[in-house]
Design a protein that fits this description.
The protein is α+β, with helices and mostly antiparallel strands and about 230 residues long. It has six helices and 14 strands. It has two domains: about 80 residues, no CATH class; about 100 residues, OB fold (Dihydrolipoamide Acetyltransferase, E2P) (Beta Barrel). Pfam families: LytTR.
């Protein structure tokens, strides 16, 4: 998690005492609850990278990240994804109306990290809100461990889906894996640059590197998709 967030350290508390710490500045671990309460980290060591703290609720405790790259919105996305899913129990009346001896109907369970094939909308957690991101709005997706971050014109959204699962589900919709870390929507590619064997794509305001083994096939596919307009 710390590596995915790009921060100096991550701490977990139960609200009263620290439970876990990972990263630099481990000498601050005992004061994690105080950091969360005050929003400040005091350290006499000028080389200590643990300075700023952002915290959000996680279950009955608190999740905190130390370091400028992390914002409350991003950490809220992570906490939302880590929270266990709770399924409502069926009403008692429905349980009683089932014919005797007949097993309860079961909803097919999708393996974790696999969106519905061809899904046009995918839910993304943003703090305490779940947003529904349209596939057609996604310019590219970036791997974040077992999750993926979707980039649209409006911003980015962390989803509980692996990049490999997105590649499989959205391949027929024009999404192509250009690198182990990136999946790109061909419809949003603005420019392809070849420079001394190195290939990059411009997608919106982002520059994405294409792996060497994917360059040839991607170039052919992009050119093949171009249709001449009226003269």
């Amino acid at each position: 998690m710390r590596l995915a967030l790009g921060c100096a350290a991550v701490a977990l508390t139960d609200g009263a005492r620290p439970l876990a710490w990972d990263g630099a500045g481990a000498h601050h671990a005992a004061d994690a609850v105080e950091h969360i309460r005050t929003g400040e980290v005091r350290c006499e060591d000028p080389r200590c990278p643990v300075r700023q703290v952002v915290a959000v609720p996680l279950g009955d405790g608190t999740l905190a990240a130390y370091g400028p790259p992390v914002t409350r919105d991003v950490l809220g996305d992570v906490a939302r994804l880590l929270a266990p899913e709770r399924r409502p129990r069926p009403p008692v009346s429905e349980q009683r109306t089932r014919p005797p001896g007949r097993p309860p109907e079961r909803t097919p369970i999708r393996p974790p990290g696999r969106p519905a094939a061809g899904a046009e909308v995918i839910p993304a957690a943003v703090g305490g809100v779940i947003r529904f991101v349209r596939r057609s709005d996604v310019r590219y997706a970036e791997a974040h461990g077992d999750y993926a971050r979707l980039y649209t014109q409006a911003g980015s959204h962390l989803v509980r889906v692996s990049l490999a699962a997105l590649e499989e589900a959205w391949g027929d919709a024009g999404f192509v894996r250009i690198h182990r870390s990136h999946l790109v929507a061909l419809a949003h590619v603005d420019e392809m640059v070849l420079d001394h064997g190195r290939c990059t794509l411009r997608v919106g305001g982002a520059r994405l590197t294409v792996s060497r083994r994917n360059t040839g096939a991607l170039r052919d596919r992009l050119v093949r998709n171009v249709r001449p307009g009226p003269l």
